[in-house]
Amino acid sequence: EQEVVEYRKSLAIRVSGFDVPRPIKTFEDCSFSSQLKNAIAKQGYEKPTSIQSQALPIVLSGRDIIGIAKTGSGKTAAFVLPMIVHIMDQPELAKEEGPIGVICAPTRELAHQIYLECKKFSKSHGIRVSAVYGGMSKLDQFKELKAGCEVVVATPGRLIDLLKMKALTMLRATYLVLDEADRMFDLGFEPQIRSIVGQIRPDRQTLLFSATMPGRVEKLAREILSDPVRVTVGDVG
Ligand code: ADP
Ligand code: MG
User: What is the ipTM score, two decimals?
Assistant: First the structure.
């Protein structure tokens, strides 16, 4: 088995890793439930964007991924759709508590956008999504998390605060997304990210998305991802 570096379609799409799944052409190529397909259609998403067509089969196969693509390329659905599948695949959801999917984003605005995207796709599946970030009452967030959720979308600082308050446990967490990792590092969240990752079981699936890959982000990726596939779309970092 050898690591393959492959250019797909054009030089703009570069994929590297071991045994990389082939890209999909349509959402039909993913074995999504009819509920999820309906939710995608309702968004008006007719076909996957470049990053989605490469990343969806990789993430759906359970692999870790480093996704590098510029803003506006559709990265959110590339991690939210497989997360819904991942959660629905868990047996006996009610047995443990705490989120299954944990998504970290650099700012409250981004966390809120991701929260809305999660809600669109999870509503029809009975998946509970909580958003935790600064500027909102910590007590309200504490109560909401205590009531239970399957997904938490958070800024790193606020998530650490709530973990310290024991508002949630990471016992069930098996799907971790670090979105806009470069910006989280720029904002000084590296220690918080490392602390959060350290509280999640090592056999989790980990997804890291970034517009650029500075050395410190590259180092973190090497430390926390297992045998990742790297997908770069466009002329970036
Ligand atoms: P990124 O995270 O890469 O900056 P987003 O996930 O925020 O990008 O997506 C950018 C915009 O594209 C959003 O308005 C989103 O609703 C839209 N979008 C995502 N995927 C598709 C798709 N397959 N077809 C059409 N629009 C899409
Ligand atoms: Mg994004």
Answer: 0.99
What residue type is assigned to position 16 of the chain? S
The chain-wide mean pLDDT, for the chain, equals 93
Q: Which of 106, 93, 90, 84 is nearest to 31 (CA)?
A: 84
Neighbours of ion ligand 2 (CB under 5 A): 75
Q: What's the predicted TM-score (pTM) here?
A: 0.95
- SS3 of residue 205 by DSSP: strand
Token representation of residue 174: 């098996």
Please name the residue whose Cα sits nearest to atom 17 of ligand 1: 74
Per the structure block, which two tokens stand in for 46?
A: 């007719």
pLDDT, one tens digit per residue, over 153-169 is 999 999 999 999 999 99
Q: How far apart are CA 76 and CA 83, in angstroms?
A: 11
| DSSP H helices in the chain | 34-42, 50-60, 75-88, 108-122, 138-147, 156-164, 181-186, 190-198, 215-224
Atom of ligand 1 nearest to the CA of 78: 6
Question: Given this structure, which CATH class describes domain 4-233?
Answer: alpha beta
| Binding-site residues, ligand 1, Cβ < 6 A | 45, 48-49, 52, 69, 71-77
8 A C-beta contact, residue 94 and residue 172: no
Gap between the Cα atoms of 135 and 2, Å rounded: 48
Distance 220 CA to ligand 1 centre (A): 26
3-state helix, strand, coil in the chain (%, to 5): 45, 15, 40
